[in-house]
Amino acid sequence: MASNEPTVIDGNMKEGGGQILRIASALSCILCQPITVNNIRAKRSNPGLRPQHMTGLQLIRDLCNGRLQGDSVGSTEITLTPSKIQSNRFIADTKTAGSVCLLMQSAIPCMLYGSGTSQMILRGGTNAEMAPQIDYTNMVFQPIAEKFGLKYTCDIKKRGYYPKGGGEVVVTTTPVKQLQPIQLTEFGRVARIVGRAFVAGVLPIKIARQMASFALTILKKQYRDIPVNIEAVQEPKHEAFGNGTGIIVVAETSTGCLLAGSALGKKGVPAQQVGQDAADMLIRNLQYGGCVDEYLQDQLIIFMALANGKSQVLSGPITLHTETAITVAEMLTQARFTITPVTGTDKNMIECHGIGLTNQLI
Q: Is 53 a catalytic residue?
């Protein structure tokens, strides 16, 4: 039952970053439960809200027609008092290279519990440091998340890069009555690897080709008999703002698992190194033998908590982000998680008995 007293959450626990705000504000909105988050990002070199966190919280406030106190850059405490979830058209702009993917992480679960189709226009960085690239969200997160019964589309209108951002995506969601639990417990074998190496702005296509070819060489050495196809792309001028380079490689297994490795180019880092970093990350995730990579792990927690029944996800080592997501989910819902290490391996089985939340608006 929703209470009128805010649940107080320590923003400095566990990972202590923006993820606490994302999962707490989403669940606050969905469950109509007020929250206060204090000590926001207390351990960071620049504590408190950054523009992207503030934008994300304001988006959730708008989605649930709620009240938000403390939403200024640098603020270390916020209180969100939600009301009814709205189905409408929403716009959120970080005005920086703040990640649109992180805005999606908190907003999409909320929009699923509205009364009708909703649309968000999100502006900021599409391929940003310290966040999933939009290609990861579209190629890995979305197909797996759809197993819960989510329905949404994400249209990339313009890509934006550090430091200016300027990207834009349009996300359209369809509401759900109830989310289904998922079983991701069989890794199978690697069936194929696809990838995308890109350059944008004034950077030459040869950089993308170098990233692609280096990643391909490393992956082929490890997986000789697996088809690997990495395309090198020059982003069309009208579909990108600023200069950027990066690569993502995604492995699909025989059982439908998707795991990825990715990297962004930086000044002074050779293209070959960027390609190698992405390939190495993918190989590391595959060698654990889990059904999700280290970045998908924590993004599934909120859906497992809300789903109707028992979800099981086999993963590699549990990340601090995942521990944080579980702690916040258990504080705000009646869902209960267990993590069981698989003896003699780096694998863990994450299980959750979800609360089976029903959308009362449809």
A: no
